[in-house]
Amino acid sequence: MTTFKVVVTGRLPEAVLGELAAAGTLWTPPDGGPLSPEELRAAVPGANAIVSMLHDRIDGAVADAAGPGLRVVANVAVGYDNLDVPALRERGVTATNTPGVLTDATADLAMGLLLSVSRRLGEGERLIRSGRPWRFALDFMLGSQVGGKLLGVVGLGEIGRAVARRARAFGMSVAYTGRRRAAPEVERELDASYLPMPDLLAASDVLTLHCPLTPATRHLIDAAALAAMKPTAYLVNTSRGPVVDEAALVEALKSGVIAGAGLDVFEDEPRVHPGLLDLDNVVLVPHLGSATTETRTAMARLAADNVRAVLSGAPPLTPITG
Ligand code: DGY
After folding, report:
1. What is the pTM of this model?
2. Is 269 an annotated catalytic residue?
């Protein structure tokens, strides 16, 4: 009987590791990871499957280090900018991701950031914890109401649509941009209008980013894009950090080019631009979009199911086809 080698680059829930162990012999990082590129290359020789985390760069060199037995790379994330999919495909390696299971958790977090920044929750919390005196007054720490405002969605995929649904429940209207127009029934459901990017930037009261990171979207939100937004507008990013030029964002937040930002992701994680740390009009959380026990377990299980399917000769459940 063939025993497969499955390299898991980070921590997975125990129950899922148990299920994965049925597929082969598991290799996991002794310290739980994350792995440096050198540690990753040292771990993969002889691997038939790699279960990767979103900061592992899995390219042709890693596949070559694994050798010709590598059949599947299962990324435990919906975003797969860390995989060189064409290089894997050339080597006959299937790549999979985890769409669907993290949609609601990520949309909830985007909505949380939107409310936190527009209602100054982080700032208020810091004030109370600082012990500085405060009193209720009609003009004290006023934020901005979201009801009646326009949410601009960049990328009306599953997560973008889920955020739009939530925003509508808070009384916001919705416009969007993307590579292509959404289906008429999606536009109808959300009462969403399609706008080209420059118009969306100019019209949005809150701009929320849900596009994948690609060469075309890297620094999509740069100094010029920020300057095109309203000075009262907020930016929310739960997609990938490099979609925003962080240095330009710091300047825009400092000088009042936009009103504030809620960020779950950063250009060079886990590093955060030091300029952001000093600003009160930005809410910062450490890549928590999918971070609920239920969602992270579902993501890990889907990745494990993809590995088990491919190693048993069945089609993967959620192959990356793009
Ligand atoms: C993903 O799956 O791409 C998310 O960033 C994880 O939170």
Report:
1. 0.97
2. yes
